[in-house]
Amino acid sequence: MLEPKKLKYRKPHRNRGAVGGKATRGALLAFGTIGLKVTESGEITARQIEAARKAMTHSVQRGGKIWIRIFPHTAVTRKAAEVPMGAGKGSLEYFATTLKRGVIVFEMDGLPHDKAREALRLAGHKLPLKTKIVTSLLTS
């Protein structure tokens, strides 16, 4: 699973107020010819990214090349059940990343168009956000 090797701060703020809006960076295909783009803003955990990656690689059966364009940098904490207020911040639970709408999550290349579409469709079902499949103008 994806997680940072080092953290500057052990328990950072999640910056949930900056989730809205449209992406200006990471919104175009950069490596592959087909990709999976999120169409709404939100948060994706490292487990969800890994589940989508596994679904894609299982579908293509060791063919083509896959790029993961996002990384879960943000440490998310959670307090235990029935802990009173004022007992400090909770312990680290998982890593996540916040995405604006329009960000490309996965890219693929080196596969027939229909196989790549099917793999990305399966990956999209593993993510909590709505997604769409985009292709570069060269292959259309």
Question: What key attributes describe this structure?
Answer:
20% helix, three-stranded antiparallel beta sheet, Aldehyde Oxidoreductase, domain 3, 140 residues, alpha+beta, four-stranded antiparallel beta sheet, 2 helices
What does this structure look like?
With 140 residues, the chain is an alpha+beta fold. The protein has a domain of 97 residues: Aldehyde Oxidoreductase, domain 3, CATH 3.90.1170.10. The chain is built from two helices and seven strands. The protein has a four-stranded antiparallel beta sheet with strand order 3-6-1-7, covered by helices on one side. A three-stranded antiparallel beta sheet has the order 2-5-4. α1 packs antiparallel against α2.
Distance separating the two termini: 34 Å
Mean pLDDT equals 92
Shape: elongated
Hey, roughly how much beta strand do the residues contain? Answer: 25-35%
Question: In short, what is this structure?
Answer:
With 140 residues, the protein is α+β, with helices and mostly antiparallel strands. It has a domain of 97 residues: Aldehyde Oxidoreductase, domain 3 (Alpha-Beta Complex).
What's the structural blueprint in terms of helices and strands?
Blueprint: E1 34-38, E2 42-45, H1 46-60, E3 65-68, E4 74-78, E5 91-99, E6 104-109, H2 113-125, E7 131-135
